[in-house]
Amino acid sequence: MTPRTALTIAGSDSGGGAGIQADLRTFFANGVHGLVALTAVTVQNSLGVQGFTEIPAEVVCAQIKAVASDMGVDAAKTGMLATAEIIRSVAKTLDELGLDFPLVVDPVAASMTGHALLREDALEAIRTELFPRATLITPNLDEVRLLTGVSVVDPASQRTAADALLEFGSRWVLVKGGHMTGTEDCVDLLSDGREYLELTGPRYLTENTHGGGDTLASAITASLAKGTSVPDAVAAGKKFIERCVAESYSLGAGVGPVSPFWVLDR
Ligand code: PXL
């Protein structure tokens, strides 16, 4: 039987833990066929990102058009987009395609080790060009602060951040609470401005969380490709990433990846 398709518009991680590598294995683990529009090639290992080269914007868009016109896209996600030009071109291409599928925008700004994955002015382009077209945006707390100026420290400020982010025009926002300190659990807040759904899960004591944000966003995208509602897709994605964090491993001298290997035993 032909599986549903999910498209990732994102960068490559030479260390194999984040970016399109994380997206493709997450799509596979969730039973959807992964399609790729590569935006950038990063040079990195567990110790950090040494640099990146972006793919020409017209090549990024040609990849999207090639797969959409022939194979069809049931859902898409964006990760590392590298430059404002790529972001503007992707937005235009999505419009040309009619954007008749769910779009998850993970506003990736920097790696966990603090290396910029976006050229300057590009975050503003994500906010103005992609958020209004997004079904769901999935910022972590650093990205929330960069995008809104709100520092999330408790449930009240998490709600303030959700409201501020929804002003940029996405249908739903998931304010991920994983980076909040002083809480025993990881509490994420999902909202469309009417519903405010708190998703609570365990916090695992591991340093090896490389690729965690990408894995969550792509697991959600896979569920959306299968026709799941946004709240159910986010709940399923959170369960998936929890297990991947619980089973993360160290590789290299720095930060190791989250792991979907457990699906092989399912
Ligand atoms: O996890 C964010 C991310 C996304 N995409 C690429 C990355 C990273 C983090 O390092 O390298 C290509």
TrEMBL record:
Q: Which Gene3D superfamilies match?
A: 3.40.1190.20
The record's annotation in InterPro entries points to:
HMP/HMP-P_kinase_dom, PM/HMP-P_kinase-1, Ribokinase-like
From the UniProt record, give the pathway where this protein acts: Cofactor biosynthesis; thiamine diphosphate biosynthesis; 4-amino-2-methyl-5-diphosphomethylpyrimidine from 5-amino-1-(5-phospho-D-ribosyl)imidazole: step 3/3
Q: Where is the Pyridoxamine kinase/Phosphomethylpyrimidine kinase domain?
A: 13-258
Q: Does the keyword Metal-binding apply?
A: no
BP GO terms, sorted: thiamine biosynthetic process; thiamine diphosphate biosynthetic process
SUPFAM superfamilies given in the database record? Ribokinase-like
**The UniProt record lists the keyword Cell cycle:** no
Q: Pull one GO CC term from this UniProt entry.
A: cytosol
Keywords assigned: ATP-binding, Kinase, Nucleotide-binding, Thiamine biosynthesis, Transferase
- Reaction(s) this enzyme catalyzes, per UniProt: 4-amino-2-methyl-5-(phosphooxymethyl)pyrimidine + ATP = 4-amino-2-methyl-5-(diphosphooxymethyl)pyrimidine + ADP; 4-amino-5-hydroxymethyl-2-methylpyrimidine + ATP = 4-amino-2-methyl-5-(phosphooxymethyl)pyrimidine + ADP + H(+)
Q: Quote the EC number.
A: 2.7.1.49, 2.7.4.7
GO MF, one example: hydroxymethylpyrimidine kinase activity
Role according to the record: Catalyzes the phosphorylation of hydroxymethylpyrimidine phosphate (HMP-P) to HMP-PP, and of HMP to HMP-P.
Protein name as catalogued:
Bifunctional hydroxymethylpyrimidine kinase/phosphomethylpyrimidine kinase
Q: From which lineage does this chain's organism come?
A: Bacteria, Bacillati, Actinomycetota, Actinomycetes, Pseudonocardiales
